[in-house]
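Thread: D-xylulose complex, take 2
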Amino acid sequence: MADFFTDVSSPIAFAGPDSDDPFSFRWYDKDRLVMGKRMEDHLRFAACYWHSFNWPGSDIFGDGTFDRPWLNPAMDPMEAAHLKMDAAFEFFSKLGVPFFSFHDRDIAPEGATFAESCSNLDTMIDYAASHMERTGLKLLWGTAQLFFQPRFAAGAATNPDPDVFRYAAAQLKHCLDATHRLGGANYVLWGGREGYETLLNTRMGAELDQLGRFLNMVVQYKHDIGFEGAILLEPKPQEPTKHQYDYDSATVYGFLKRYGLENEIKVNIEVNHATLGGHDFNHEVAQAVSCGIFGSVDANRGDDRLGWDTDQFPNSVEQMSLGVYEILRGGGFTTGGFMFDTKLRRQSLDRSDLFHGHIGAMDTMARSLLVAAALIESGELEALVAARYAGWDTEEGAKLLSGAYGLADLHQQVLADNIDPTPRSGQQELIENLINRTIERAR
Ligand code: XUL
Ligand code: CO
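Output below.
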């Protein structure tokens, strides 16, 4: 097997914060214990097949710019798929991530018929299994790509044509079987076209019912085959459609409740999808944790001034620390992890650029973990918040939530006790300074 990433020797090593070697980790020290757990087990990093190996660096104004020989249309598609997989596993193992993720159509080409597509996927899943065995890499999640092929232009489960619903169900079944076979920790559904371009031609209520039925079939089948991973929906408000039904974590939770799925499906939160939805990353995590549906994270960020999904590598410790803090407070990852659903910039032409993007991202996340752990271990922030809510921890506070009183009771109490609450400082600036101090000092 010829090496593709010849500039990099395996694997990238931890060299400490003072290292100037761009091919070393400055913060990601996988065996270091943080709050009693190895960094690698906290962060559960995964690299993606999708943008890193399957995207040629094209945009709507220009062709692919990247050096990805397997994307040459002159190559036999299955030969190209094998070459791509060799390069992908070489990259994953040289980088030292424990997990990877894939779409079915990333790893195996679509055939002339559905049966041929299935057989292509089976061949490549066998090949992936042998690479996983050889390298020790594990699968964070698999997903069926139900948005690229023109048949899905009006959606997959939410398509006006029931034959597309049928086709999508069949494709998903095959991909869930493949994910199960590779021991995937999760199965993801991103409803890229489960939404609409215009309400004028859309039966919104009917489409939601279709999606509810579709997801119930997924959950049923997962139990039938004994797949123990989590089923995850990935919220995104729009792009490619004008409106997507899985808008954000709160919307997804309401949808899951409506279709009886709130104990079966969780969310895969993508940092930039949160931004596109008008939220901060930590908001989306806190929302999901509070609803009991937090699953996994796609750690790629957006750009503050661009309203589309730029999928950049995370490099803000402040942004990510606040999200990691919410994740740790929620008990950390179980089946999930930090997946880099990232895209290089189109001008990042060198093969080694893929390493620089991921190394920086992993160091950013490792430092964010140290900051979040320091915040939890010092307890200062939690003490401020606890003091703020202390009234609710009293017996009277608990009684207010227990259903013991109605409006008339409270009306009477306020009159009788002559209550006149005085406002107290929310201490936001004090807290922001505490965060900055923690970021400065965390090592
Ligand atoms: C698209 C996106 C997808 C999903 C998987 O915005 O994030 O890559 O993660 O389909
Ligand atoms: Co994603």
